[in-house]
Amino acid sequence: SKKPVRVAVTGAAGQIGYALLFRIASGEMLGKDQPVILQLLEVPVEGPQKALKGVMMELEDCAFPLLVGMEAHSDPMTAFKDTDYALLVGSMPRKAGMERAELLAINGQIFTAQGKALNAVASRNVKVLVVGNPANTNAYIAMKSAPDLPAKNFTAMLRLDHNRALSQIAAKTGKPVSSIEKLAVWGNHSPTMYADYRYATIDGASVKDMINDQVWNKDVFLPTVGKRGAAIIEARGLSSAASAANAAIDHMRDWALGTNGKWVTMGIPSNGEYGIPKEVMFGYPVTCEGGEYKIVAGLEIDAFSQECINKTLAELQGEQDGVKHLL
Ligand code: NAX
Asked: Mind listing the UniProt keywords for this protein, alphabetically (predicted)?
């Protein structure tokens, strides 16, 4: 049987953590033959630490055959020791009335500390996924704080946007989600993301031709996907959790086990592809194989797409400029 791998999860007592940990432990992320050790991090505060113990009791009570170890931590330097996978879920999302500088300063602190800890103690091949918002910028901070690890090992979650776009296209075309191929989402995990179905196909036929409605694309589809998070909060009174956890599972599974040529979206540090400046943590269409992602190359960017990409890039560069002084 396989050697166990270490999976660190931060914000482990939160909503997303509760929807995520049981699926990792059951083998949905890394395969039904891959034993895992969970290294769970929460803030060093009594309430969350106590809640984390409760979640761990429930994990024990599932008697998952693949869960061969479990630890609770309050310090990233111990939580990330030798970790092969790190899902950084805990963060400080923007609250009503919070100044932008305040938000960036708090997350700057969290993600510089976590990046440094990964740099110091994680496996040299650690695969890092940042879920906590602002996800792209937090991933950028962590990457910049971990100079001894390959930059390509730091990623941000755009997969929820990708999955939301898939389901909107399925509803519009009346075709099953599973039949849609070659969707791309570009940019920041924010309402400015650009979900791009120009290359998408269903059973080989062009989705763009099937829909054939640029007004729907611009005025319905993009705003619906972009504002979906807000719509969930409005309906549920809480932010997306199970769907976010599901997207995190999809992202890590595909990165680790491959996509068989299928396109998926990951936020990854640019190497200049598609004119995005180097190191910007940008959503790109990728395929994965052998534990590595590769950007889908050679896509033509038309005027409307370029305008959308410029907008989401400008937002991201604004965020990243706002944290430069911390790095
Ligand atoms: P919760 O508030 O339920 O849980 C967050 C947990 O993180 C809390 O238990 C808190 O104690 C812990 N935490 C905070 N700072 C920490 C630190 N420095 N180290 C370890 N733990 C820490 O939030 P939840 O609903 O689980 O959402 C978590 C994050 O995901 C938020 O930032 C949220 O904005 C973000 N999201 C990102 C999405 C994406 O697509 N990238 C979508 C869903 C979600 O909104």
From this structure: NAD, Oxidoreductase, Tricarboxylic acid cycle
**Is the CB of residue 42 below 6 angstroms from any atom belonging to ligand 1?**
yes
Residue 96's pLDDT band (cuts 50, 70, 90): confident
Angle (deg, nearest 10), helices 46-62 and 15-25: 30
Which pLDDT value is given to residue 61? 98
To 10 degrees, the CA torsion angle through 85, 259, 157, 218?
Answer: 180
Please tell me the residue having the least CA distance from ligand 1 atom 18: 110
Q: How many helices (H) and strands (E) does the chain have?
A: 12, 14
Q: Tokens for 74? A: 């309050």
Mean pLDDT throughout 276-289? Answer: 98
Digit-coded pLDDT (tens) for 119-156: 999 999 999 999 999 999 999 999 999 999 999 999 99
Query: Phi/psi class of residue 194: alpha, beta or left (left: φ > 0; alpha: ψ in -120 to 50)?
Result: beta
CA of 92 to the centre of ligand 1 (A): 7
Tens digits of per-residue pLDDT, 238-257? 999 999 999 999 999 999 99
Four-point Cα dihedral 285, 311, 88, 120, nearest 10: 90
Tell whether ligand 1 has an atom less than 6 A from the beta carbon of residue 49. no
